[in-house]
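Run log // design_07
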C-alpha cells in the first residue's frame, strides 16, 4: 500500500507539476494544492477502509500464535489446556486492534502532509521536477522504513500483550526473560536480564522503565511462563 501510494503521488507530480508560470503565479499554486489534497483524501480513505480489517487480522494472528506457543509448552510437560476467550483476553485483543488502526492510519497522514509541504516549497521556489522527484524518493524511503518498523514493533508488542492476558487467565503470574541475541546492537540491560524471573503484571525495571519482553522499540526478547507446581 505504501508503494502504491508513492507511485500514485509520483505519477501525479510528474503529470501536473511543471505547468507554465507555476512558481510566479499564485493561482496555479492554489490549483496544485487543491488537486493534491483531493488525491490525498482518496488515499487517506483507502488506508482508513483497510485499517480495521488489517488490524483485526493482525491481532487475531498474534492471539493464535501466542496460544500455539503456550499450548506447545504445556504439551511438552504432558498437560493439555483448552483456551477460551476471557474478558481480559478480549480487552487485550481490542486494545491491540485499536492501536494498530491508529498506526496504520498515521502512515499516509504523515507521508501526505510531508509531501504536500515538499511540493508547495518546490513550487514556491521555482525548483525543477528533478529536484522534487529526488525529494519524493527520499520521503518514500523514510515512510517505507517507518511502516516496516511499525509492523515489527507492533508484532512484538501484540505478542507480549496477548501472552500476558492468556497466561494470567490460566493463573500464571511469572515469566523468565530470554534475550533474543538477534539485534546488531543489543541493549546491555536486556542482555543482563536474560534468565531473570519477573512478575507478568509489572515486567522488569530496565533503564528506568518497567517493561515486558518485546515492549521496547525493536526489542525481540521473549519469555517462558513459570507454571505453578512445575517450574
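design_07 sequence
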Amino acid at each position: 500500500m505504501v508503494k502504491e501510494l508513492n507511485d500514485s503521488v509520483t505519477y501525479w507530480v510528474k503529470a501536473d507539476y511543471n505547468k507554465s508560470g507555476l512558481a510566479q503565479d499564485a493561482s496555479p499554486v492554489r490549483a496544485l494544492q487543491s488537486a493534491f489534497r483531493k488525491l490525498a483524501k482518496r488515499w487517506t480513505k483507502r488506508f482508513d477502509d483497510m485499517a480495521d480489517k488489517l488490524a483485526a487480522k493482525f491481532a487475531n494472528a498474534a492471539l493464535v500464535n501466542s496460544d500455539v506457543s503456550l499450548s506447545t509448552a504445556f504439551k511438552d510437560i504432558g498437560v493439555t489446556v483448552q483456551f477460551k476467550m476471557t474478558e481480559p483476553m478480549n480487552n487485550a485483543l481490542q486494545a491491540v486492534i485499536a492501536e494498530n488502526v491508529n498506526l496504520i492510519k498515521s502512515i499516509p497522514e504523515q507521508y501526505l502532509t510531508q509531501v504536500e509541504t515538499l511540493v508547495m516549497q518546490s513550487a514556491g521556489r521555482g525548483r525543477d521536477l528533478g529536484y522534487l522527484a529526488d525529494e519524493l524518493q527520499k520521503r518514500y524511503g523514510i515512510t517505507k522504513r517507518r511502516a516496516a518498523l511499525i509492523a515489527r514493533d507492533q508484532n512484538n508488542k501484540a505478542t507480549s500483550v496477548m501472552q500476558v492476558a492468556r497466561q494470567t487467565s490460566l493463573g500464571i503470574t511469572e515469566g523468565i526473560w530470554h534475550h533474543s541475541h538477534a539485534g546488531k546492537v543489543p541493549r546491555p540491560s536486556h542482555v543482563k536480564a536474560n534468565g531473570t524471573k519477573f512478575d507478568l503484571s509489572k515486567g522488569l525495571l530496565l533503564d528506568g522503565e518497567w517493561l515486558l519482553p518485546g515492549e521496547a522499540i525493536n526489542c525481540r526478547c521473549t519469555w517462558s511462563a513459570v507454571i505453578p507446581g512445575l517450574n
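The chain has a mean pLDDT of 86.
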